[in-house]
Specification:
Layout (H helix, E strand, L loop, with lengths): L7 H6 L3 E4 L7 E6 L7 E4 L13 E10 L6 H5 L4 E4 L4 H16 L4 H23 L6 H5 L2 H12 L7 H8 L3 H12 L3 H18 L4 H7 L5 H12 L3 H10 L2
Antiparallel strand pairs: 1-4, 2-3, 2-4, 3-5
């Protein structure tokens, strides 16, 4: 059976930006025990309600803000409030973290670009780990953690304009329609149709913001006509596509 790349389409559509930031405004933290010579843990807190506070005997040796490419990114809403990943036993991840810390300390030319790229690799590794252990928080990561559902979700991600039915997606997943629908709701927290609708709208808004023609966007994502997309956007945002684009362009 062919392997499905569960992250690439998401990462390509919603480009991550990782940039060094003071701890009080950061989402990603590298921790080191007091007196230790190497960091021991990563913490990812994508929805901070208060500044991150490590234990008294732990110091933050690197912190970064993570921009997920906009609030429409399904990964952002799917992430737990806080993810901790120990570096002990993962030599590759530990080496990457050490490279990031060294690059940040050296402050050589091109440091922002290097840290952004290495930070993206770090985030991908953390997402992989979350999928491997099985995410309990409902959302796209929960669905992608299940190999059967992942095949259906990736199919929607890669062909959002196709007229997917529950039967089509259940067939891709290798499940009965009833079992597929039940499992999808448990893991993702939405029906397959609702998830597809949100995914299409997220992509449509991206393309509209980039200046694409409304009728072209409508055809690309399965709306059938510009009128149908107009109606869908009014339902989601309260504005027609053109008015929404102008309003977004005026925001700082």
């Amino acid at each position: 059976m062919a392997r499905y790349d569960r992250l690439s389409t998401l990462m390509n559509r919603f480009a991550l930006e990782v940039r060094p930031s003071p701890a009080e405004a950061a989402h990603l933290f590298v921790l080191q025990q007091a007196g230790a010579s190497q960091p021991h843990q990563l913490v990812l807190a994508p929805h901070p309600s208060a500044p991150f506070r490590p234990a008294p005997d732990v110091q933050v040796i690197f912190s970064a803000a993570v921009d997920w490419g906009g609030s429409d990114n399904p990964l952002l809403s799917a992430l737990p409030a806080q993810t901790e990943q120990n570096l002990e036993g993962d030599a590759d991840l530990a080496a990457l973290v050490q490279l990031i810390c060294a690059e940040h300390a050296a402050r050589r030319c091109g440091v922002a670009s290097v840290l952004n790229r290495m930070g993206e690799v770090l985030i991908v590794k953390m997402l992989r780990r979350l999928m491997e252990i099985g995410v309990t928080h409902a959302g796209v990561l929960g669905g992608l953690s299940d190999r059967r559902l992942a095949r259906a979700i990736v199919s929607m991600h890669e062909a959002p304009g196709r007229a997917w039915t529950s039967a089509d997606l259940a067939d891709v997943a290798g499940l009965s329609v009833s079992r597929f629908t039940q499992l999808f709701g448990q893991k993702v927290g939405a029906t397959p149709a609702a998830y597809l609708r949100r995914w299409r709208m997220a992509l449509a808004r991206q393309d509209i913001m980039q200046g694409d023609r409304i009728d072209a966007v409508a055809r690309r994502y399965g709306y059938g006509s510009s009128e149908a997309l107009n109606h869908a956007m009014r339902r989601e945002t309260g504005q027609a596509p053109g008015a929404w684009r102008r309003a977004q362009a005026m925001q700082p």
